[in-house]
Amino acid sequence: MEISITINDVINLRAVLNETDTAQTIYRALPLNAKGDTWGEEIYFASGVNASLIDPTEILDAGDLAYWPPMQAICIFYGPTPASLGNEIRAAGPVSVFGKIHEGDLKALKSLRGPVNITLKKA
After folding, report:
1. What span, in angstroms and rounded, lies between the C-alpha atoms of 47 and 44?
2. 3-state secondary structure of 50
3. How far is the C-alpha of 39 from the C-alpha of 83, rounded, in Å?
4. What is the rounded distance in angstroms from the CA atom of residue 64 to the CA atom of residue 102?
5. CATH code for 2-122?
6. pLDDT 10s digits, 42-85
7. Does 31 sit behind a cis peptide bond, omega within 30 degrees of 0 on the bond before it?
8. DSSP state at residue 19
9. 76: closest CA among 100, 105, 51?
10. In angstroms, rounded to a whole number, what is the distance separating the alpha carbons of residues 58 and 92?
C-alpha cells in the first residue's frame, strides 16, 4: 500500500504502509485533508480515524508515519521533538508505526512551522 502526502501544496512525499491493521484502517479512510500542526520536527493532525495501537513505541526514525490514539492523530516524524532526549526522535506518548516515507525531501519539512495543510491519498 503506497500513499502520497502533500503539505501546503508544495512539499510532496510518498510512503509505503506496513501490513498492520492500523495501516489498513488508515488506508481505507483515504483521502484525508486536514489542518495540521508542528511539534518540534513532527507534523501531526487529527484524522478522525479510529485505529488500533499495535506494537507501541515512543522512539522513532526519521520518515516514520505513526498513529497516536488519544487524538486519533497521524504523525510524520522527521527529527527531534520537545520530548526527545538528545538527537533521538520521541513521540509524546506510545504510537503505532504504520508506514515509512520512501520518496521526497524530509529536510524540506524542517522549515515548516504550523499550522500546515496536509493531504494524504492513495498513490
Report:
1. 9
2. coil
3. 9
4. 10
5. 2.40.100.20
6. 999 999 999 989 899 999 999 999 999 999 999 999 999 999 99
7. yes
8. S
9. 100
10. 7
Domain ranges for the chain: 2-122
Residues forming beta bridges with residue 16, ordered by sequence position: 2, 100
Q: Among residues 11, 5, 75, which one has the least CA distance to residue 41?
A: 75
**Whole-prediction pTM value?**
0.94
Distance, CA of 60 to CA of 82 (rounded, Å): 14
Report the alpha-carbon distance of residue 62 to residue 65 in Å, rounded.
Answer: 9
Q: 22 is written with which cell numbers?
A: 492500523
- pLDDT at site 112: 84
Tell me the C-alpha distance between 18 and 2, whole Å. Answer: 9
Cβ atoms within 10 Å, residue 54: 15
